[in-house]
Amino acid sequence: MANLEAVFAEDMQCPVCLDILRPPVRLCQNGHATCDDCHNKIDRTWHTTRCPLCRGDFRPDPCPVKEQLYYSMKVSCKFDGCKVKGYGREVVRHERRCILREVRCSKCVWEGPHVWLPSHHFTNHVRMKK
Ligand SMILES: [Zn+2]
Ligand SMILES: [Zn+2]
Ligand SMILES: [Zn+2]
Ligand SMILES: [Zn+2]
Q1: What is the mean pLDDT of residues 17-40?
Q2: What's the average model confidence in pLDDT over 74-86?
Q3: Segment 82-127, tens digit of pLDDT
Q4: Ligand 2 is a single-atom ion; what residues have CB below 5 A from it?
Q5: Which residue in 25, 22, 31, 78 sits closest to 54, CA to CA?
Q6: pTM of the full predicted structure?
Q7: Which residues form the RING-type domain (predicted)?
Q8: Are both 67 and 123 inside the same structural domain?
Q9: Do 72 and 50 share a structural domain?
Q10: Residue 27 forms beta bridges with which residues?
């Protein structure tokens, strides 16, 4: 019998980031799944909302089966440099508060980890003011 985790890993791989699918999971009409983040990335990079594997359209509804699978898997926080690991459902909650989560500056186009926002703000928006 195949190793259950190996089956999960293969079934749960996103063709765009080659990582584990992260909810919300988007499905194309032929059943290929990508993370919602990756779906948005395709849209921004290639200006298309079609599936990278089959060029099919994505379905508007998310995929609860793969999302449930993710919640019960051991995963790690998606943000670079963060060492937090745990079950998907806990990690999803952690990612919303992760100090390394990607944020966007409200005053310019800067994007980066949340911990750097205050220093970015100080160097770029506070000191500039006369
Ligand atoms: Zn992905
Ligand atoms: Zn597809
Ligand atoms: Zn984290
Ligand atoms: Zn800024």
Answers
A1: 91
A2: 94
A3: 999 999 999 999 999 999 999 999 999 999 999 999 999 999 998 7
A4: 28, 30, 32, 51, 53-54, 56
A5: 31
A6: 0.74
A7: 14-55
A8: no
A9: yes
A10: 33
Instruction: Judge if 31 and 63 occupy the same domain.
Output: yes
Ligand 3 ion local residues (Cβ < 5 A): 77, 79, 82, 84, 98
Asked if the model's pLDDT at residue 80 lies above 60, the reply is: yes
Domain count within the chain: 2
Q: Are residues 110 and 123 in the same domain?
A: yes
36 C-alpha to center of ligand 1: Å? 7
Are residues 120 and 68 part of one domain?
no
Residues 43 and 73 in one domain: yes
The range of the structural domain enclosing residue 80 comes to: 4-97
Question: Residue 87 belongs to what H/E stretch?
Answer: strand 85-87
CA distance 28 to 53: 9
Closest ligand to Cα 75? 3
